[in-house]
């Protein structure tokens, strides 16, 4: 009995830590079983109860008794739609939309239509385009001219009939057909109207999209109903998408039945007669403020509150007045922003005093993020030293270079701003003027912006005329402003890529690997990519091509690929030259392909893959952008591993190499863009073909095209280490760049240091 009691005590002592867990599990299971029995009983009672459905609970709306929303209500809750495929129909691949915004049915916010005429197309319409057009997400101009000459930078829709009513009818119909399903709001204005774009955009963000909105400056019909109003076209008006959809079926009836001289009255009568909606100047707590301009008005002297609060002003008589209005409203908006910044800074100061850190936690400038605090010496952001004439941190790595271009303008603006701030603080007691910039430092902090520290030699003058020269250190910050998304043309991944591979005799050992990777990653996967080989013969080898063809082995490999893939043809072009200039070679290839060809200029060490080809398609935009990827160059394994086994992981290549910024061998561009830039180059060099030997395709696009040059690191382009042969007959810059690429591609500093250390140890023993 004693032994049994001891065993029982040992078991209980072992289970004691698990007792809370066991009790919790038991209690949870009991409660779940009890709840399941209640739910089951309630379900049985509801199923067995005959007769009409039970009335809803007291206080609940009638629609709450059913799962469906009542009439006039919309259910915005997400619903899971089960997938069902009819077994009698053949399977068809479902094509997903490119952007999630399209699939979810999101709409853009605002579309703007500007009505213009023959007399004002090249004057007032151009003024509208230069002042407010770039502030709206989408703006089109509509005119009744048949073959109007479109001013630069404007999108014009010509209806071919200058009758005002017909122009309004065609414009509304065109907006519905082309943009009715893409936008929530439609703003229609005339070209003699100045509209504050930011205010109009802010207005639509505060309005509900579920209502039929006809918003503008409400005017009475002449001799019509006292309750009905139309929106005056001179001050612009806003239509909601729901109203436009309901109005479109009645446009033809309005055109045939409603007679009016003014197009805005015709549209207002159409909306009232068929939809029963009248124009309003106030909706959902938002006011549509307008201001009617008097003759000989001076916008700079207008201080009325009604003028400053106006969303639209009318009539604008000429272009000069349009620009003056834009300048005045921009100044008003800027003053509001500065005042708002000061109010926010004051609130931040007041609240910071109540925090545990107190005023010590207040950053400078107030409201801007604190400077970045490095956690190690490798994260320290270095300062760049400059003077008014020179920069001592140059892009090309040289220790000193002349200050020019955007950098010079930046330094000049910062110095002027520093002196202006000093005068604003110390006037009228002191007046400062710059003598000289002694020292200048700047750095880019990604958390707050560009920081500057200036040592200025200033001359301070008092009110009595006394002056004194002194040195003063000031600190300034150019903060990061609101991030804007730059609109880019639409591109697709279905574009065919034409690979161009130049080959010399020194490249023969690497061709087999290139062709194998090309076959595996493009031909086997049926990627939309073609290959053209460019055989570069030395004049001596070209004379002996009948007896010994140095590229015979490569041609045999191409023949094997064409036998293996019957639908694939790999053409080649033979060129004889001593100096294989990249530009001259592309001139030959460009003439043999259509203008819409997308070229990928590759090197023999490039390993082609589908991931990079898709990025080549997406990053290259015809008449807009060219792509020059920076490939990843692996280090010399003899120096990195020193006889050890190389890493097999796919992620280790980022550690055992570097991105070769000296190489411009790979490029993606359209043939039409190259031909345009090449034409400008030909007009500049005037038959001096020797200049082409010192240029690459990158230089052609950089100096002779207005396109965006997108140069970025490309981890999808990985090249094995090899010592490249640098042609001494090329220009000094190209030869020097090739040598630097070879030297930096040997190994990292730590690997080179270890190799030197081991060599010294071996020599000492």
UniProtKB/TrEMBL annotation:
Keywords: Glycoprotein, Golgi apparatus, Membrane, Signal-anchor, Transferase, Transmembrane, Transmembrane helix. This is Hexosyltransferase. Residues 65-78 have a biased composition (Basic and acidic residues). The keyword Amino-acid biosynthesis does not apply. The keyword Transmembrane applies. Pfam families: CHGN. Its main location: Golgi. Its EC number is 2.4.1.-. GO terms for cellular component: Golgi cisterna membrane. Residues 47-78 are annotated as: Disordered. It is found in: Golgi apparatus, Golgi stack membrane. The lineage of its organism: Eukaryota, Metazoa, Chordata, Craniata, Vertebrata.
């Amino acid at each position: 009995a004693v032994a049994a009691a001891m065993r029982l005590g040992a078991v209980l002592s072992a289970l004691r830590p698990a007792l809370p867990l066991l009790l919790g599990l038991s209690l949870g299971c009991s409660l779940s079983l009890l709840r399941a029995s209640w739910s089951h009983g309630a379900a049985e009672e509801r199923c067995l109860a005959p007769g009409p459905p039970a009335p809803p609970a007291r206080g609940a709306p009638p629609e709450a008794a059913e799962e469906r929303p009542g009439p006039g209500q919309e259910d915005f809750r997400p619903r899971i739609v089960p997938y069902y495929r009819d077994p009698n129909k053949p399977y068809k691949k479902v094509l997903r939309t490119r952007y999630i915004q399209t699939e979810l049915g999101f709409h853009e916010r605002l579309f703007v239509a500007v009505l213009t005429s023959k007399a004002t197309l090249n004057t007032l319409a151009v003024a509208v385009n230069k002042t407010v057009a770039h502030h709206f997400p989408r703006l089109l101009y509509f005119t009744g001219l048949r073959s109007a000459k479109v001013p630069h930078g404007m999108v014009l829709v010509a209806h071919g009939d200058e009758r005002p009513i017909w122009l309004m009818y065609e414009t509304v119909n065109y907006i519905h057909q082309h943009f009715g399903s893409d936008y929530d709001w439609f703003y229609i204005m005339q070209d003699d109207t100045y509209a504050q774009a930011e205010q109009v955009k802010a207005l639509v963000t505060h309005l509900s999209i579920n209502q039929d909105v006809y918003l503008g400056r409400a005017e009475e019909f002449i001799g019509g109903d006292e309750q009905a109003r139309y929106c005056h076209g001179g001050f612009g008006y806003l239509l909601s998408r729901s109203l436009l959809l309901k109005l479109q079926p009645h446009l033809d009836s309005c055109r045939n039945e409603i007679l009016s001289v003014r197009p805005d009255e015709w549209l207002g009568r159409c909306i009232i007669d068929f939809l029963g909606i009248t124009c309003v100047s106030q909706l959902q707590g938002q006011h549509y403020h307008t201001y009617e301009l008097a003759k000989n008005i001076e916008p700079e002297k207008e201080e009325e509150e009604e003028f400053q609060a106006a969303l639209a002003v009318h009539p604008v008589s000429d272009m000069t007045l349009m620009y003056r209005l834009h300048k005045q409203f921009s100044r008003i908006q800027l003053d509001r922003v500065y005042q708002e910044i000061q109010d926010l800074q004051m609130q931040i100061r007041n609240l910071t005093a109540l925090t545990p850190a107190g005023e010590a936690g207040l950053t400078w400038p107030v409201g801007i993020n604190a400077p970045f605090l490095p956690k190690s010496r490798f994260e320290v952001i270095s300062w760049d030293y400059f003077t008014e004439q020179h920069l001592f941190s140059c892009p090309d790595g040289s220790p000193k270079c002349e200050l020019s271009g955007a950098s010079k303008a930046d330094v000049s603006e910062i110095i002027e701003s520093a002196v202006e701030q000093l005068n604003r603080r110390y006037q009228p007691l002191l007046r400062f003027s710059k003598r000289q910039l002694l020292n200048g430092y700047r750095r880019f902090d990604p958390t707050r912006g560009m920081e500057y520290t200036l040592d200025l030699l200033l001359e301070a003058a008092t009110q009595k005329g006394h002056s004194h020269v002194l040195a003063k250190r000031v600190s300034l910050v150019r903060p990061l402003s609101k991030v804007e998304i730059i609109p880019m043309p639409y591109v697709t991944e279905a574009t065919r890529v034409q690979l161009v591979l130049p080959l010399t005799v020194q490249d023969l050992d690497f061709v087999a690997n290139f062709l194998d990777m090309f076959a595996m990653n493009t031909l086997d996967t049926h990627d939309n990519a073609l290959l053209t080989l460019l055989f570069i013969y030395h004049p001596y080898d070209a004379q002996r091509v009948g007896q010994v063809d140095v590229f015979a082995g490569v041609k045999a490999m191409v023949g094997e690929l064409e036998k293996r893939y019957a639908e694939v043809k790999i053409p080649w072009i033979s060129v004889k030259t001593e100096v294989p200039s990249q530009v001259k070679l592309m001139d030959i290839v460009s003439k043999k392909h259509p203008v819409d060809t997308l070229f990928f200029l590759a090197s023999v060490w490039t390993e082609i893959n589908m991931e990079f080809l898709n990025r080549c398609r997406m990053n290259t935009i015809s008449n807009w952008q060219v792509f020059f990827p920076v490939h990843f160059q692996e280090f010399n394994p003899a120096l990195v591993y020193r006889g050890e086994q190389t890493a097999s992981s796919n992620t280790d290549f980022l550690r055992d190499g570097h991105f070769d910024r000296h190489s411009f061998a790979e490029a993606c561009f359209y043939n039409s863009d190259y031909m345009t830039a090449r034409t400008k180059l030909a007009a500049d060099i005037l038959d001096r073909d020797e200049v082409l030997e010192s240029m690459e395709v990158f230089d052609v696009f950089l100096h002779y095209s207005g396109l965006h040059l997108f140069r970025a690191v490309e981890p999808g382009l990985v090249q094995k280490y090899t010592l490249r042969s640098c042609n001494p007959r090329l220009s000094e810059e190209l030869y020097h760049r090739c040598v630097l690429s070879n030297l930096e591609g040997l190994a990292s500093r730590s690997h080179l240091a270890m190799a030197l250390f081991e060599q010294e140890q071996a020599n000492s023993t």
